[in-house]
Design goal:
OB fold (Dihydrolipoamide Acetyltransferase, E2P); Rossmann fold; five-stranded mixed beta barrel; disordered C terminus
Amino acid sequence: MSDSLFAADSSATNATEYTVSEISGALKRAVEDQFGNVRVRGEISGYRGPHSSGHAYFALKDDRAKIDAVVWRTTMARLKFRPEEGMEVIASGKLTTYPGKSSYQIVVEKLEPAGAGALMALLEERKRRLQAEGLFDPRRKRRLPFMPRVIGVITSPTGAVIRDILHRIRDRFPLHVIVWPVRVQGETASAEVTAAVQGFNALGGEVFPRPDLLIVARGGGSLEDLWGFNDEALARAVAASDIPVISAVGHETDWTLVDHVADVRAPTPTGAAEIAVPVKAELEATLASLSARLGACLSRVFERKRTALRAAARVLPTPDQLFALPRRRLDEATSRLGRGLDVGLSRKRAAFAAMRLTPASLDHRLAEAARHLATCGSRLETAQRADMRDRRARVDRAVARMSIEPLRRRTALAGERLAVLMRRKDRAISLQMERLGGRLARAAERVSAEPLLRRTGLGKDRLSALMRRKDSAVSLRLERLGARLGHADRLLNTLSHQAILERGFALVLDEDGNLLRRAADAGDGEVVSIQFADAVKEAITTGGGQRFARRRSSKKVAPAGQGSLF
């Protein structure tokens, strides 16, 4: 029964065996291939960053799960806002694994706010208050002039928005346009736009005539970028304007308070220009159609190029992908270095304290040595008496076996030998006792109390000096190692034989692959290999044109109808 049990336990299985590194690498490749580009929405938890290396580590969580996330230093520099604990965001990137902890994480390449938050709550509160006052009522909004003579534009003078508006007005119906330059983003944007609306309403001279229509324009952006157009004072100024106002803030999906209180809301700045002026002629409509087709064609071309570029970029690994694991290991080693030094120092201090010599410990050691000496002396005497008894017994037995006369002689010799041994034993015991006494006296002199105290003070001072030198020595060692590594890499590239071959030189090798340094090392007619920078060619050595011709003439002539290999 036991044999069958062992046979069942040792039965082979057809399951494939993997090493830990192999299964970790397979999981890493599977996750990165399957989730190469994902968008994850969640709340930031456990935010730690930026690290001393410039990277940031945190986790994205919801009500049921949590996933680790990392933002590399190059990506952190491109973020438009600073991540904070508890912020709900949408992270775009790719999933990867960290074999060192058997975990997975998302490498964030783009980060944006996910939801409304406090800004949306404040915006909704302002919207309810203004709507209760009737500023959003469609009955109070005015019709736009069919053919305005002067149009006032409130926007940034350096952005693409003003160029789009001027271009669209020029194409559809050229007229006089007055631009009031303002900031369209930042803390002073709302105040400048409010002053511009009020300033256009106050115009009335010949140099700057009062506009028949106002356009408040800005390009698209996030909720934070468009927050200046949600100012309550700006909304009231637009509602109180005597001049009709077209709001062209952001794109179709971007809504602000100015959009609600303006007389007309345009989906885009270009759409505002189209609403402001009519079409002048059918030719201009045709040109606008061709321009729109051209823009669509360019967009499709650019999109195809972008798609092709993204496909090519996904084939090659990025520097962040190559250095992801080394960076993580370096960060963890850096965080553990200081802790390890402190633990090692504590252990050394404990060992030093345990080995500290005191007068009491020295007295204890002297007492132990004295007891050991006394024990050895008593054992020596016992061994001596036992040895004497053994010798006498052997002598008695020998006497019984031998005749009287030889026995006497042997007894006499044995007695003399025993006397010599006894004298030697006494001298050895005396010498050993003197040596032990001297060693005890010298030990007592060396471990007196006052030198012990001096050595303890010197040990404390040396320990303090070593602690002060520890941090500077570690930093200096790391810097020197980094400099030596860089110098070695540069020297390796400079002294590489491949770099010499790239400059036009070549290596000549014989049939066995040995390097030929001189012409005398190669005989005539030998096959050699010439290694260039990009390939290897074979050649036959000669001593000159005439000698090579004689060698060729000395070859045997091939039979008719059969070509010669030489």
